[in-house]
């Protein structure tokens, strides 16, 4: 084989290799896409008290694992304990006033019932005397006397009804005062309970710099709680997502865990990116000018849920994500080989 033949052979081999790689990358990118632009995220919750006060105790240390409901720190509860006692006394006084007013109301109602019965009796008696007078069995004086007694009883009944109405209004006022006292007591009790700040979810304490004696304000974050729930996000080119749906199988390799592949699935795909968000600001549009013939591809964010537990990873840990949109496709084998090579490469970089 002369030099020209050898050169031609190498050219053919190079063209075949180039064509094979081109077909490989086109198939992989369109049907089993992979991206190294992926990260693991954990929700970071700012921990802030809902009441103000001096920090009396810090119950956790930095990077400590905590469970939901575990005490993180406590504020000085002296002022809140006194406020609760005052609210309790006010509630007791309001309850006593309401009970006294209720007793007075019961007495007035009993008296009014007697007055009503008396008025009804005298009214019937006056009617009877009037009939007897018309028949000539009673004198005018006797009939007039019975009529006057009935009128006096009616006036007494109206006065009793007025007293009952006043008592009802007074009772409503003390009931309102008692309700306000109950609310004040419950608020004082709640404020006292809020001096004990607990973990809302299970996780780890991060960047703890809190010390006893610090004056805390309501709503001011004093530490960070990193959730145990891990979420992976991956950014892929638009065209690579044509066959990707919610539930598509996913393989994930974390830089911090080389040699291991974790299974998962697509939980959601974002509907857009910030560059595509327009705001009605009253100004004219400013087109993007570029003299590049081949522009950068737009990427969309894919959210991945893992199907198996993952060892402790820091939030923000880097990862590589491989998607398998076509179920049962022979390209899956290439995808798994590609992902396995990446997992081994992570031992080096």
From TrEMBL:
Keywords: Coiled coil
Domain spans labelled Multidrug resistance protein MdtA-like barrel-sandwich hybrid: 47-225
Residue runs in coiled coils: 98-198
Coiled coil found in the keyword field: yes
Domain of life of the organism encoding this protein: Bacteria
Pfam family, one: Beta-barrel_AAEA
Domain p-hydroxybenzoic acid efflux pump subunit AaeA-like beta-barrel: 231-322
Family: Belongs to the membrane fusion protein (MFP) (TC 8.A.1) family.
PANTHER family, sorted: P-HYDROXYBENZOIC ACID EFFLUX PUMP SUBUNIT AAEA-RELATED, SECRETION PROTEIN-RELATED
Protein name per its UniProtKB record: Multidrug resistance efflux pump
């Amino acid at each position: 084989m002369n030099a020209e033949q050898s050169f031609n052979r190498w050219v053919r081999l190079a063209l075949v290799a180039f064509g094979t790689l081109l077909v490989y990358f086109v198939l992989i990118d369109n049907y089993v896409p992979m991206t190294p632009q992926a990260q693991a995220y954990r929700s970071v919750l700012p921990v802030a008290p809902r009441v103000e006060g001096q920090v009396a105790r810090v119950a956790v240390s930095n990077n400590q694992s905590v469970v939901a409901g575990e005490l993180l720190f406590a504020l000085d509860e002296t002022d809140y304990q006194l406020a609760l006692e005052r609210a309790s006394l006010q509630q007791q006084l309001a309850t006593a006033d309401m009970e006294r007013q209720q007793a007075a109301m019961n007495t007035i109602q009993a008296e009014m019932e007697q007055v009503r019965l008396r008025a009804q009796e005298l009214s019937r008696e006056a009617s009877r005397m009037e009939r007897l007078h018309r028949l000539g069995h009673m004198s005018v004086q006797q009939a007039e006397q019975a009529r006057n007694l009935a009128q006096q009883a009616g006036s007494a009944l109206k006065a009793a009804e007025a007293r009952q109405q006043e008592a009802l209004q007074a009772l409503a006022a003390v009931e309102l005062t008692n309700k306000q006292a109950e609310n004040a007591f419950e608020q004082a009790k709640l404020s006292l309970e809020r001096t004990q700040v607990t973990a809302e979810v299970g996780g780890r304490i991060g960047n703890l710099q809190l010390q006893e004696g610090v004056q805390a304000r309501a709503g001011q974050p004093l530490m960070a709680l990193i959730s145990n729930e891990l979420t992976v996000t991956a950014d892929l080119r638009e065209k690579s997502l044509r066959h990707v749906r919610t539930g598509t199988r996913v393989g994930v390799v974390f830089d911090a865990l080389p040699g291991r592949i974790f299974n998962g699935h697509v939980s959601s795909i974002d509907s857009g990116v910030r560059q595509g968000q327009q705001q009605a600001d009253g100004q004219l549009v400013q087109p993007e000018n570029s003299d590049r013939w081949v522009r950068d591809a737009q990427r969309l964010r894919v959210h991945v849920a893992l199907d198996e537990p993952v060892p402790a990873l820091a939030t923000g840990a880097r990862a590589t994500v491989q998607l398998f949109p076509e179920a049962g496709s022979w390209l899956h084998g290439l995808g798994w080989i590609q992902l396995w090579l990446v997992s081994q490469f992570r031992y080096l970089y």
